[in-house]
Structures
1.
Amino acid sequence: MAPEITAATPADLPAVLELIDASGLPRAGLDNHVATTLVARESSRIVGTAALELYGGSALLRSVAVAAAVRGQGLGQRLTTAALELASRHGVRTVYLLTETAGEFFPKLGFTMIERSAVDPAVQVSQEFTTACPASALVMAKQI
């Protein structure tokens, strides 16, 4: 049975952070965005996550991670699609992301590379942009 994607709860945060750490992703500031974090559960175990930071009409997609045991089954795509749907429900028009390792994954979902300077200034001041991800990270955007 495919993992169920649901909204995260504060009680899920330790498992989400463990998954993010195991995936080598930055955790800085994620605890401030639990209300817009999604989790994928297989039985009672969290096997995937994706989070949004909302900035008015823009959002930052971050912390898309899937447990090694269930990779390659489309769960990352399902989580990203669910996060984009969540962004749309919040009135977001543009979703941005930073990545060092998934430069080939996100274009399959409609993201295109952009210059860092083209990112909404509200998103540029996020912790992810200012301290958590290096300047060498790829920047991508998708209009929704």
2.
Amino acid sequence: MKRILIKLSGEGLSNKKKNLDIDPKIIQELIYQVKELLKKEIEIGIVVGGGNFWRGTSAEKNGIERNKADYIGMLATMMNGLAIQSSLEKSGIKTKIQSSLNIDPKVAEVYIKENCQKYLSNGKVVIFIGGTGRPYFTTDTAAVLIATEIKADAILMGKNGIDGIYDLDPNKNSNAKKFDEISWDEIIERKLAVMDSTAASLARENNIKLYVFNISVNNSILKLIDGVIPHTKVLR
């Protein structure tokens, strides 16, 4: 893989046992892996969620209007993105942060595909914040849209404690069957909770390749690239 898009959930950055919304240990491991990937001349984009700070769907149930709740969630992705950028920069990794929302350019520049491709080609890590910039769409949909536009070879989606795609929730059913490979058609037909349906349909239409793996494994991204940890490959 030459150009990858890493999808990081907000929950994947947190450590609830230690009451940390952003766990420094997780960030440090991410920094190490990014450095190693750059040594392999792999171009890296990162789409980050905001679920460690805010979840729009949950807020809606508590009386906050859905579109307002989703915009708050976009702000949460900005907090995560800026934290990741700061840590990468302190470690000597050149980055750019691009936002789907218009904000002060001192914080982030607006997402422009051509600029993004130039940064990636020059070895900079590009961090994408703000989701799609519109309510009712998840950061999964944002990841598929961006992967399509920048012509990423694959989306790498890390799950917390789950090493791939199953036909049932493996945390609730010991008989759940894991797929080593699966198609987008089957994911959509079975209504498997890999991505939301909008993101999955968009990925199918644009022939996006997806790898799902357990991000809790030490150096999981590197091990996935080397093919030495369990994962599920979603076929084009």
